[in-house]
Amino acid sequence: MAYQQSYRNDKPESEFIDKVVEIKRVSNKTKGGNQISFTALVVSGDKKSKVGVGLGKAKSVADAIQKGIKKSHKSMLEVPIVDGTIPHQVKVKFKGAIVLIRPGKQGSGLIAGGPVRSVVEVAGVKDIASKIIGSKNKSINVWATLKALTMLKK
């Protein structure tokens, strides 16, 4: 029997998990009328302590997501994980948001709000407790969480 090649799935499977946190429709007033574009905030990780965040901007949603995925893969950072949780407590202020992340007890799970949960979930953290204080803006909370994870020391 002859070998048959599939052209549909010619892209290799990525080892990263990509999660779209937020999509915004942005409008710009110009002389010719409104210019509509989209921004997509994407979080990528390998569930083995690597995580990255990217913001893609384009005229269509699909292109914005693709750009966000590319940027998040380029901005990967290593998160120290000890027994499925983080090594110590961190409190970070980033713009209007304050994010507090604490190591969780074994088996407690992810006790975190939406933006923080999506970042630590793709990073591979299994037990964590967190609190978002101040801002309800998803993108600011994601960047604050990333800053908190960079401050962790083994």
Automatic annotation (TrEMBL):
UniProt entry tagged with the keyword Ribonucleoprotein: yes
Highest taxon above the source species: Bacteria
PROSITE patterns: S5_DSRBD (PS50881)
GO biological process: translation
UniProt KW Ribonucleoprotein keyword: yes
Entries under InterPro entries matching the protein: Ribosomal_Su5_D2-typ_SF (IPR020568), Ribosomal_uS5 (IPR000851), Ribosomal_uS5_bac-type (IPR005712), Ribosomal_uS5_C (IPR005324), Ribosomal_uS5_N (IPR013810), Ribsml_uS5_D2-typ_fold_subgr (IPR014721)
Domain S5 DRBM: 16-79
Family: Belongs to the universal ribosomal protein uS5 family.
This protein's name: Small ribosomal subunit protein uS5
